[in-house]
Fold this sequence. Notes:
single chain
Amino acid sequence: MPVVHPIERLRYVARSSGAPQDLLMVESARALATFHNDPVALVTACRRVVSRQITSGGLWWVCSRLLTAAEPLDEVHRIVEAVEDDTTPRALTLALDPDATVAVLGWPSSVADALVRRGSGETLVIDAANEGSSLVRYLNGHGVDAVDVPLGGLGAAVAAADVVVLEACATRTDAVMSVAGSLAAAAVAKVAGVPVWAAVGVGRALPDRVFDALVSRWDVSDEPWEAEEEIVPIDLVETIIGPDGPIPASALASLINCPIAPELFKADIT
């Protein structure tokens, strides 16, 4: 089998928008390891990674840690271990009632993992980002009772659910960024009295300065309703599911362990 050079791997990671975020985090960290002895090149490479995946809070976390580490190569090993040992899906499985009807949007990879682990109950999969049908087939293939809900049925599905579970791609202390449709789902849930949970995996919780830098470079095109992600105010979220289990949404800041690397705030120019 041919060996893939780290530079080529980095280019692949930068283009792989559809890959699960934890995979992007691990592959990016390993690819960036090749620059551990060249600080200038490491800065350029990190800027390139986040520029290609602006809304991936996990990649901002990876790059922030590498740019502030005394020994980047050692930090790569710690990053990979933290991501691969992320217990957020397991914590979500344990928190969910086995018989609860769960509403999700698109294909949230960590939440999907938790639903497969749970095995029981019904899942209403709202077809956000045109990924719902694929998730339904995946869940059904693993013995999970899943229903394909068109985006127009979002309100009805949320009202019929026992809990809505969002998956955060990034957060700040007062907001969660998730797939488009999440804001509407959370708002309907608030009115219907359905609790909203947000799964926040390792590296997704960002300091406000880092999250604001992400948002300042977030390309939502000319029309905000065409964006692939949107921001949900924390007031619409009841519970955060992190690696150590459920916490109140007001305690979201307790999950932040991302340093601030101002070098990332400047956009990649290549």
